[in-house]
Amino acid sequence: MIDAETQEVFRQETEALIESLQAGLLALNDRPEDIGLVSQVFRDLHTLKGTGAMFGYTRLAEFIHDFEAAFDAVRSGEANVSPQLISVSLQAYDLIVALLEGEDPEQSLDAALKHALAEATGKVPAAADGADVAGACDPNGAATPAADGWRLTISLPEDLMEIGGNPVALLEEVIEIGGAQTVLRADVSRLPALDAFDPARLYTGWTIELPAAAPEADIRDVFMFHEDRMTLSLEPVAGNAAPGAAAEASPELAPEVSTAVVAAPKAAVAVAEAQTPAQGPTKASAGGKRAAATAAASSQMRVSSERLDDIMDRVGELVIAESRLADLASKLNLPELDEVVEGIQRLALGLRDTTMAIRLSPVSGITGRFRRLAHDLASKTGKAFDLVIEGEETELDKSVIDKLSDPLVHILRNAVDHGLEPTAERVAAGKPERGTVRLVARYSGADVLISVTDDGRGLDPDFIRRRAIERGVIAQDQVLKRHEVFALLLAPGFSTAETVTDLSGRGVGTDVVKTTVESLRGSIDIDSVLGQGTTFTLRLPLTLAIMEGLLFQVGSERYTVPLAAVEGIVEQPEALRGGTATSTVVELRERLVSILRLRQVFRVEGEEPAFPKVVLVRAGDAQVGLVVDEIIGSFQTVIKHLSPLHSRLDIFSGATILGNGNVALILDVAQLVRSQNITTPSQRERAA
After folding, report:
1. Beta strands per DSSP E along 542-608
2. Could you give the CA distance from residue 275 to residue 397 in angstroms, rounded to a whole number?
């Protein structure tokens, strides 16, 4: 059993591969004729098999061998991509994931899936006597050739030695498989003229003849990390009376080459083995393409999230120290010190931006599993629908991405199981037969909005209210606004489903979604039009660590808002002077804007300043104005979580330490607007 550290390395190596494999299988379901996708799936399986074998996952490697053989048959034109093949392949994918996660499924599942893959590709021979089908086939799913031997022709990559490969070690492995009857001949036809010869390049090819007893799979596995970049031909040789016949045809070559291989020093073999792990899979790029397993140097490096968190914590402390240094320098008024402070500020800003960029991860990292979920939901519910994903390039803090998958899975399940109508019902309502579920990610100021929209039956607020009263969630005489009625769906144990299915309906999950999103300092909004569909919108902060903030003062306290959410700062209009209401609506820049007086919100006493300012910030799809006493300026804000005692103050998303050591609270504008029951002009227009 491999140790935990090695297992974690293996998990990181295979993470991108299994995501790419699933994406390729799902894409083939829509484009079965795409040979490029077939090749991608084959390469992913091939690399997974080699990496698994390298790290001691024997069962995994043996199972993938047959899985790979099915797509090798498709790639060679011996079989076609069919719905049956995709369905079985996805089940095989699930087994691979289970094995990667350390589970131990029943061994019978391996054999059953291997047989199903063989059936899907037409590789199961007729066996009238009931003989074991698997035993009649070789590991590649094809009948063992009736031949007297194998002829292997190889031409390795010219840069093999430059990237640490060892051709002598590879040849020695082949000879070990074939035994004493192996015959090897060198092909020097590619040798250039002496003046063009590069000793670091490999120009020689080989033809190797092996006895029939040599397993085909073992021969191919020798070159598993180079097969995508080399030329390899392995053919059964019929009528080869003696393996040494080829040697007699070229006696001047075979003996010398064979002797050189057998006498190869063990140190060369050790180098090749030591470098094999480094030639494993590299992380998939944003475009979904993967570098070859034998790439000379990877442009990416995997680092544990714990180390990134530690770096971010230290950068945060550096930013705070830099802010305090700048505050001291402004008081001392020393030009030499100011110059040093400016240099440190530039370095801290650059380090912050670089570290933030490392922590950001595109939403595409989790959307692959949603496509698989859609495939499974269509099979289980019998509903035909299209899953449309937009904004996959939108980036979020990786710690947010990691926790976001389960809430979105639950929302997608509800959208299909509860939202979409059966085909007959859709047609009767004048809708297209196929439904649409749309997942969209986009930036909105300092937040990221992720919405899941279906074009199904929609939500009936009157029905939700009645169900909530029946279950004791609200009182009979309780008055709720439209958005508050929809928010009841997030209450623990609440469900509008008439029947419970294996997908949803128990009332557990939506409250977990709410808890998870709120733990990320986010929020959920639900909007629906009866008969047209429903939209769940998750509002999440772009980052949980450091941001650029706008600092302002209200009374004697200072507060900050994300600078990315600020859309402007104006003088307080005359219409607002002398008012005492917490909120109002005025016309600013030829638009109606909801205004919040923060002195009233925070119950600040004392005389108002002579020239208060209005900070225009983005709150969802609307603009909101915050009346403040004074604008201090912008500065780097290190987000500190509030203590459990203050965590219930939803209108604050955290706190930050200023240069003078004081604390400023960070305003969550969306929660602030919601807490004051403000209906923005755009919301009133939608309600109308």
Report:
1. 546-554, 557-562, 566-571, 583-588, 591-597
2. 34
Contact 559, 638 (CB under 8 A): no
Tokens of 552: 């302002």
Q: Tokens for 432, please give them.
A: 């297209």
How far is Cα 542 from Cα 564, in angstroms, rounded to an integer? 10
Phi, psi angle pair for 419, to nearest 5°: -80, -55
Query: 439 pairs with which residues across the strands?
Result: 389, 452
> Strand, helix or coil at 563?
helix
Question: What is the pairing mode between strands 546-554 and 630-638?
Answer: antiparallel
613-619/622-628 β-pairing:
antiparallel
Give the torsion through C-alpha atoms of 139, 145, 146, 148, to 10 deg.
Answer: -90
Q: In order of start, what are the domains of the chain with their CATH numbers?
A: 4-142 (1.20.120.160), 149-278 (3.30.70), 305-361 (1.10.287.560), 363-541 (3.30.565.10), 546-687 (2.40.50.180)
pLDDT digits over 513-563, tens only? 888 888 887 888 899 999 999 999 998 887 767 778 899 999 989 999 988
CA 556 to chain centre: 45
Q: What amino acid occupies position 417?
A: D
Give CA–CA dist 520/313, Å, rounded. 17
Residue from 112, 43, 108, 114 nearest 72 by CA? 43
Q: Which two tokens stand for residue 410?
A: 């639950």
The tens digit of pLDDT for each residue in 257-314 reads 333 333 333 333 332 333 333 333 333 333 333 333 333 333 566 677 778 878 888 8
Alpha helices in 55-82 (DSSP H): 58-75
Handedness of CA 175, 180, 186, 187 (dihedral sign): negative
Instruction: Find the distance separating the first CA and the last CA of the chain, reported in whole Å.
Output: 65
State the number of CA atoms in the 13 A half-sphere of 83 facing the CB.
Answer: 3
Place of tokens 């969209």: 440
Letter string b/e over residues 12-25, b meaning 16 or more CB atoms within 10 A of that residue's CB: ebbbbbbbbbbbbb
- Mean pLDDT across 150-178: 84
Q: Which residues contact 498 (CB under 8 A, 6 or more apart)?
A: none
* Amino acid of residue 290: R
What are the backbone angles phi and psi of residue 74, rounded to the nearest 5°?
A: -65, -40
Q: By mean pLDDT, which of 197-211, 296-310, 338-352 is the weakest?
A: 296-310
CB distance 185 to 206 below 8 Å? yes
Residue 73 identity: A
DSSP string computed for 499-543: S--SSS-SS-SHHHHHHHHHHTT-EEEEEEETTTEEEEEEEEES-
Closest CA to 447 of 544, 559, 350: 544
Rounded CA separation 92/67 (Å): 8
Distance CA 364, CA 384 (A): 24
Identify the H or E element spanning 13.
Answer: helix 4-30
Question: For residue 508, how far is the Cα from the chain centroid?
Answer: 26
The SS3 call for residue 211 is: strand
Q: Please tell me the distance from the alpha carbon of residue 592 to that of residue 595, in angstroms, as a whole number.
A: 10
Q: What's the CA gap between 191 and 197, in Å, rounded?
A: 8
Please state, in angstroms and rounded to a whole number, the distance separating the CA atoms of residues 59 and 53.
9
Per-residue CA distances from 501 to 293, 405, 498 (Å): 44, 21, 10
Nearest by Cα to 222 from 275, 157, 144, 169: 169
**94 C-beta neighbours (distance < 10 Å), count:** 16
The packing angle between helices 167-178 and 254-262, to 10°, is: 100
Spatial distance between the Cα atoms of 503 and 379, rounded to a whole number of angstroms: 12
The upper half-sphere exposure of residue 64, i.e. CA atoms within 13 Å in the direction of its Cβ, equals 28
Q: Which of 126, 64, 107, 58 is nearest to 89 (CA)?
A: 64
